[in-house]
Amino acid sequence: MSRPEGGAPQGALQEHDPILQTVARAVFYLVLLFSLHMLWRGHNEPGGGFIAGLITSAAMILHRVAFGKAVTLFNPLVLLPWGLGVAALTGLVPLLFGSAFLKSAYGYISPPFIGEFEWATAFVFDVGVYIVVVGATMSVIGNLALVRPTETPRDADAARLGEARHNAHDARSQSSQGER
Protein backbone atom coordinates (compact mmCIF):
# COMPACT_ATOMS: atom_id res chain seq x y z
CA MET A 1 0.00 0.00 0.00
CA SER A 2 1.36 3.36 -0.85
CA ARG A 3 1.38 6.01 1.81
CA PRO A 4 0.89 9.70 1.23
CA GLU A 5 3.50 11.91 2.91
CA GLY A 6 3.11 11.47 6.68
CA GLY A 7 -0.25 9.70 6.46
CA ALA A 8 -1.97 6.35 6.74
CA PRO A 9 -2.06 3.87 3.87
CA GLN A 10 -4.40 4.90 1.08
CA GLY A 11 -7.78 3.24 1.53
CA ALA A 12 -7.23 2.68 5.26
CA LEU A 13 -10.06 3.45 7.66
CA GLN A 14 -9.81 6.61 9.65
CA GLU A 15 -9.12 6.02 13.31
CA HIS A 16 -12.45 7.40 14.54
CA ASP A 17 -15.07 7.12 11.82
CA PRO A 18 -18.29 8.54 13.31
CA ILE A 19 -20.57 6.77 10.82
CA LEU A 20 -19.02 3.37 11.54
CA GLN A 21 -19.20 4.03 15.29
CA THR A 22 -22.89 4.97 15.07
CA VAL A 23 -23.71 1.86 13.04
CA ALA A 24 -21.63 -0.32 15.38
CA ARG A 25 -23.46 1.03 18.44
CA ALA A 26 -26.83 0.30 16.82
CA VAL A 27 -25.97 -3.14 15.45
CA PHE A 28 -23.69 -4.61 18.14
CA TYR A 29 -26.36 -5.60 20.67
CA LEU A 30 -28.80 -6.75 17.99
CA VAL A 31 -26.17 -9.10 16.59
CA LEU A 32 -25.39 -10.39 20.10
CA LEU A 33 -29.10 -11.06 20.71
CA PHE A 34 -29.32 -12.90 17.40
CA SER A 35 -26.27 -14.92 18.40
CA LEU A 36 -27.89 -15.93 21.69
CA HIS A 37 -31.06 -16.84 19.79
CA MET A 38 -29.02 -19.10 17.49
CA LEU A 39 -27.33 -20.67 20.51
CA TRP A 40 -30.64 -21.27 22.27
CA ARG A 41 -32.49 -22.79 19.32
CA GLY A 42 -29.54 -24.92 18.18
CA HIS A 43 -30.72 -27.91 20.21
CA ASN A 44 -33.78 -28.60 18.06
CA GLU A 45 -33.31 -26.43 14.97
CA PRO A 46 -30.44 -25.09 12.85
CA GLY A 47 -28.04 -23.14 15.00
CA GLY A 48 -25.89 -24.11 17.94
CA GLY A 49 -22.69 -23.13 19.66
CA PHE A 50 -20.45 -22.95 16.62
CA ILE A 51 -22.50 -20.59 14.47
CA ALA A 52 -23.54 -18.55 17.52
CA GLY A 53 -19.87 -18.15 18.45
CA LEU A 54 -19.02 -16.98 14.94
CA ILE A 55 -21.88 -14.45 15.02
CA THR A 56 -20.71 -13.14 18.41
CA SER A 57 -17.18 -12.85 17.05
CA ALA A 58 -18.47 -10.88 14.06
CA ALA A 59 -20.16 -8.42 16.44
CA MET A 60 -16.99 -8.10 18.50
CA ILE A 61 -14.87 -7.56 15.38
CA LEU A 62 -17.23 -4.82 14.20
CA HIS A 63 -16.96 -3.19 17.62
CA ARG A 64 -13.17 -3.43 17.61
CA VAL A 65 -12.88 -1.95 14.12
CA ALA A 66 -15.19 0.92 15.06
CA PHE A 67 -13.75 1.79 18.47
CA GLY A 68 -10.24 0.33 18.49
CA LYS A 69 -8.43 -2.22 20.59
CA ALA A 70 -8.64 -0.09 23.73
CA VAL A 71 -12.24 -1.21 24.31
CA THR A 72 -11.30 -4.90 24.36
CA LEU A 73 -11.94 -5.87 27.96
CA PHE A 74 -10.14 -9.22 28.18
CA ASN A 75 -7.67 -11.54 26.53
CA PRO A 76 -9.77 -13.93 24.41
CA LEU A 77 -7.37 -16.83 25.04
CA VAL A 78 -8.74 -16.93 28.60
CA LEU A 79 -12.03 -18.24 27.17
CA LEU A 80 -10.51 -21.38 25.64
CA PRO A 81 -9.93 -23.40 28.83
CA TRP A 82 -13.32 -22.34 30.20
CA GLY A 83 -15.15 -23.47 27.08
CA LEU A 84 -13.19 -26.72 26.89
CA GLY A 85 -13.90 -27.29 30.58
CA VAL A 86 -17.65 -26.80 30.15
CA ALA A 87 -17.73 -29.13 27.14
CA ALA A 88 -15.59 -31.77 28.87
CA LEU A 89 -17.66 -31.68 32.06
CA THR A 90 -20.80 -32.13 29.98
CA GLY A 91 -19.30 -35.34 28.67
CA LEU A 92 -17.80 -36.55 31.95
CA VAL A 93 -20.79 -36.03 34.28
CA PRO A 94 -22.82 -38.87 32.71
CA LEU A 95 -19.91 -41.23 33.43
CA LEU A 96 -20.40 -40.52 37.15
CA PHE A 97 -23.95 -41.87 36.85
CA GLY A 98 -22.99 -44.97 34.89
CA SER A 99 -24.05 -43.64 31.48
CA ALA A 100 -22.02 -43.27 28.30
CA PHE A 101 -19.70 -40.33 27.68
CA LEU A 102 -21.71 -37.32 26.39
CA LYS A 103 -25.03 -39.08 27.10
CA SER A 104 -27.59 -36.29 27.03
CA ALA A 105 -30.13 -35.83 29.78
CA TYR A 106 -33.26 -33.78 29.24
CA GLY A 107 -36.42 -32.71 30.93
CA TYR A 108 -38.99 -29.93 31.12
CA ILE A 109 -39.06 -26.73 33.16
CA SER A 110 -42.12 -24.54 33.70
CA PRO A 111 -41.00 -21.12 34.94
CA PRO A 112 -43.75 -18.59 35.66
CA PHE A 113 -44.81 -16.26 32.83
CA ILE A 114 -42.73 -18.15 30.25
CA GLY A 115 -44.45 -21.50 29.98
CA GLU A 116 -42.98 -24.95 29.66
CA PHE A 117 -39.79 -25.55 27.72
CA GLU A 118 -37.35 -28.40 27.32
CA TRP A 119 -33.85 -28.34 28.80
CA ALA A 120 -31.02 -30.64 27.77
CA THR A 121 -27.40 -31.15 28.70
CA ALA A 122 -26.62 -30.88 24.98
CA PHE A 123 -27.30 -27.16 25.39
CA VAL A 124 -24.56 -26.96 28.03
CA PHE A 125 -22.17 -28.64 25.58
CA ASP A 126 -23.19 -26.04 22.96
CA VAL A 127 -22.38 -23.28 25.45
CA GLY A 128 -18.89 -24.76 25.82
CA VAL A 129 -18.46 -24.83 22.04
CA TYR A 130 -19.74 -21.23 21.88
CA ILE A 131 -17.14 -20.06 24.41
CA VAL A 132 -14.30 -21.88 22.61
CA VAL A 133 -15.29 -20.48 19.20
CA VAL A 134 -15.49 -16.90 20.50
CA GLY A 135 -12.13 -17.23 22.27
CA ALA A 136 -10.34 -18.83 19.33
CA THR A 137 -11.82 -16.55 16.68
CA MET A 138 -11.12 -13.35 18.60
CA SER A 139 -7.59 -14.51 19.39
CA VAL A 140 -6.85 -15.22 15.72
CA ILE A 141 -8.39 -11.93 14.56
CA GLY A 142 -6.53 -10.05 17.29
CA ASN A 143 -3.23 -11.55 16.17
CA LEU A 144 -3.98 -10.80 12.52
CA ALA A 145 -4.70 -7.20 13.46
CA LEU A 146 -1.16 -6.91 14.83
CA VAL A 147 0.34 -7.67 11.41
CA ARG A 148 1.42 -4.48 9.67
CA PRO A 149 1.55 -4.17 5.89
CA THR A 150 5.08 -4.51 4.61
CA GLU A 151 6.72 -2.83 1.70
CA THR A 152 6.53 -5.04 -1.38
CA PRO A 153 9.60 -5.42 -3.58
CA ARG A 154 7.83 -3.43 -6.30
CA ASP A 155 7.23 -0.54 -3.89
CA ALA A 156 10.87 -0.65 -2.80
CA ASP A 157 12.08 -0.66 -6.43
CA ALA A 158 9.82 2.28 -7.27
CA ALA A 159 11.11 4.19 -4.25
CA ARG A 160 14.72 3.51 -5.21
CA LEU A 161 14.06 4.51 -8.83
CA GLY A 162 12.38 7.74 -7.70
CA GLU A 163 15.29 8.49 -5.39
CA ALA A 164 17.82 7.78 -8.18
CA ARG A 165 15.95 10.12 -10.54
CA HIS A 166 15.84 12.79 -7.83
CA ASN A 167 19.59 12.42 -7.18
CA ALA A 168 20.36 12.55 -10.92
CA HIS A 169 18.25 15.69 -11.24
CA ASP A 170 20.09 17.27 -8.28
CA ALA A 171 23.46 16.35 -9.80
CA ARG A 172 22.49 17.91 -13.15
CA SER A 173 21.27 21.03 -11.37
CA GLN A 174 24.50 21.38 -9.42
CA SER A 175 26.68 20.78 -12.48
CA SER A 176 24.76 23.35 -14.51
CA GLN A 177 25.16 25.88 -11.69
CA GLY A 178 28.90 25.18 -11.53
CA GLU A 179 29.30 25.86 -15.27
CA ARG A 180 27.92 29.37 -14.93
TrEMBL record:
<keyword id="KW-0472">Membrane</keyword>
<feature type="transmembrane region" description="Helical">
    <location>
        <begin position="46"/>
        <end position="67"/>
    </location>
</feature>
<feature type="transmembrane region" description="Helical">
    <location>
        <begin position="79"/>
        <end position="102"/>
    </location>
</feature>
<comment type="similarity">
    <text>Belongs to the CPA3 antiporters (TC 2.A.63) subunit B family.</text>
</comment>
<keyword id="KW-1003">Cell membrane</keyword>
<feature type="transmembrane region" description="Helical">
    <location>
        <begin position="23"/>
        <end position="40"/>
    </location>
</feature>
<dbReference type="InterPro" id="IPR050622">
    <property type="entry name" value="CPA3_antiporter_subunitB"/>
</dbReference>
<feature type="transmembrane region" description="Helical">
    <location>
        <begin position="122"/>
        <end position="146"/>
    </location>
</feature>
<feature type="region of interest" description="Disordered">
    <location>
        <begin position="157"/>
        <end position="180"/>
    </location>
</feature>
<keyword id="KW-0812">Transmembrane</keyword>
<protein>
    <submittedName>
        <fullName>Multisubunit Na+/H+ antiporter, MnhB subunit</fullName>
    </submittedName>
</protein>
<dbReference type="Pfam" id="PF04039">
    <property type="entry name" value="MnhB"/>
</dbReference>
<feature type="domain" description="Na+/H+ antiporter MnhB subunit-related protein">
    <location>
        <begin position="19"/>
        <end position="138"/>
    </location>
</feature>
<dbReference type="GO" id="GO:0005886">
    <property type="term" value="C:plasma membrane"/>
</dbReference>
<keyword id="KW-1133">Transmembrane helix</keyword>
<dbReference type="InterPro" id="IPR007182">
    <property type="entry name" value="MnhB"/>
</dbReference>
